[in-house]
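During data preparation, we tokenized the protein backbone, and the record follows.
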Amino acid sequence: MEAGIVGLPNVGKSTLFNALTSTQGAQAANYPFCTIEPNEGIVSVPDDRLDRITQFIHPKKVIPAILKLVDIAGIVKGASEGQGLGNKFLSHIRQVDAILQVVRCFQDDDVIHVSGQVNPVADMETIEMELMLADMQTLENALPKAERTAKSGDKEAKLRVSAIQRCQQHLDQDKPLRTLEMPEAEAKEISSYGLMTAKPILYIANVDENDLEGRGELAQAVREYAEKAGAHVVPVCAKLEAELAELEEPDRGEMLESLGLHEPALATVAREAYRTLGLQSYFTAGEKEVRAWTIPVGATAPEAAGVIHSDFERGFIRCEVYRLDELETYKSEKEIRNAGKLRTEGKSYVVQDGDICHFLFNV
């Protein structure tokens, strides 16, 4: 799964993405992001639970969870009609699973805003409207074909028609599709359309250096808008993050300490993007490695096992599970087992965030 970074021109999107994808010098091994293509990157998800596990289980290596981010071409008003790089923007955003929208919340006379004034709510409304207009066009184009197929008695096509019409009615009320509750069968029928306002969204408030916590008027306006939309906000000073990204690890630590921060804000971006995608981590822990594995929230034990290897899912027998707090109490897996705290779970078990698992399988 992947998230796309979007934004209007001159909101700091490129600065933020370049900071995320920085791999200068020794920093490449330490900073949680590396570029794999000009507009794509893989970011590790900071998780202090990995450090806590390794206090008791000492592996040869530690592997965090990762997610893919895509830097999507900037959008302007009229993108849904092909203005600017609209077509490129829309084709890329259809392919991602979640949207990270960078919103400008800083004043800088040297950086001209596309509309002439800094108004984060207007920026958010512009992009939301362009996505809704594009979704309306997609649905309008899809409906005639679905209706023709439905006339032949095709049950799936009938569901598709119902889903399309339900979405159209919702969009006609100026509401994004992520706020629409839809029967699972209908949602499945239109999943291939890549409807953009159905994707979960995370707002990144690009704040000034003197407002790192995003308490200023502009960032608060973003929070109020996001709250109504049921979305989260992460305040980030992209300019500062870019400076941090250029520093070696010791110097970065000193700068963070001087600012009263314990980690770059980009770490919070990574974790919130992970959550926005509906993902969670479980762990495997042994002498070879301690590793975080990425699964969708609600995944069963066999599905979680399949992330490691398809054979694990195909030949799943059972799962042995314990929690980090139990490891911290009993100090070792052996003592957890001796205390009778090691649980044995079957195929119907829904893996929880933070579970430490051993899978038994036979193929």
